[in-house]
Amino acid sequence: MLTVLPENLEVAKTYLETGSMEETAAQLRISTEKVSSILATKPIRDYLTAAYLDAGYRNRFKLAGLLDRMIDTKVEEAMETQFYTKEDLLELMKFAHKLRMDEIKAGTPTNQTNIQVNQEFGQGNYGELMKKLMG
């Protein structure tokens, strides 16, 4: 776990409020270069990403809830009026599916290490292998 200095969190918080490095620098009375270097550190980048994704309709739960309500409304409207186009509902369903697939894909590890054990020499007998290699 990395320790984040409170002053760096203040820079991040101000940046989230202003949305501008220049405005953040002006409010905190530090250079834009200093703001930039603080925002570029991994712990602060991770903090900003998490805050950004949790805000408003970027939040995956809010977005999913809104999408569910839109689909429910379209289905209700279609049932009541018996007038609808399949394309409207299909587009919403495709979008919901795409969001879910992106979410699943984002949760899977991107780096994987595979280890292969060859048991060519006597059922993996390490001693026998070493004797043959040394001999």
- From the spread of the alpha carbons, the general shape counts as flat
Distance between the termini: 49 Å
The averaged pLDDT comes out at 77
Instruction: Find the count of extended strands (DSSP E, 2+ residues).
Output: 0
Strand content: under 5%
Domain tally: 2
Quick one: biggest sheet? none
Run of helices and strands: HHHHHHH
Unreliable stretches: none
Overall SS class:
mainly alpha
Helix percentage: 55-70%
Radius of gyration: 27 Å
Count of alpha and pi helical runs: 7
Helix-strand blueprint:
Elements: H1 6-18, H2 21-28, H3 32-39, H4 42-54, H5 60-81, H6 86-106, H7 126-134
Helix pairs in contact: 1-2, 1-4, 2-3, 5-6
What keyword list fits this structure?
2 domains; 7 helices; mainly alpha; 0% strand; 135 residues
Describe the structure.
With 135 residues, this protein is mainly alpha-helical. The protein folds into 2 domains: 1-54; 57-106. The protein contains 7 helices and no strands. The protein has helices at 6-18, 21-28, 32-39, 42-54, 60-81, 86-106, 126-134. The mean pLDDT is 77.
Summarize the structure.
This protein has 135 residues and is mostly helical. The chain has seven helices and no strands.
